């Protein structure tokens, strides 16, 4: 329980505005060009990272510039141009957004192409953008997260199971 509380406090810490060179960008998934991202989970040997400038452990992260805890961010997978974003969970173009997962301090520049919603913690995208089909196949299937690299133990519990990708049970 203590580890869970510590993890939650770190993973969902608010007001990380302009976090420069922030460590523990946990699970920055499929993000390339993670500029100055430190300890973006599984980023040593920058696996599948394109132009990961000064990124240590930036696992699959795309363009998560100065992002701390940009969980699953696309172009940072589900997050386009998450510049200075802290905990931008499934956020699109969350520029200077702190804790976008919980829906406050938005400064979007995407002309509502990827609308972030304030109502529900995990319902950041509309159904057309963030449906189950978006997470299936070779892109985000179980095979992608197995083995020692990204195994079930790493993604178990409420953190990355089915509850994590719905709108009600994760938080």
TrEMBL record:
Sequence ranges of Basic and acidic residues compositional bias? 133-164
Q: Which Pfam families match?
A: Plasmodium_HRP
InterPro entries given in the database record: Plasmodium_HRP
Domain of life assignment: Eukaryota
Q: According to the UniProt record, where is the region Disordered?
A: 34-94, 133-171
Q: Can you say what this protein is called?
A: Histidine-rich protein 3
Q: Which organism is it from?
A: Plasmodium falciparum
Encoding gene per record:
hrp3
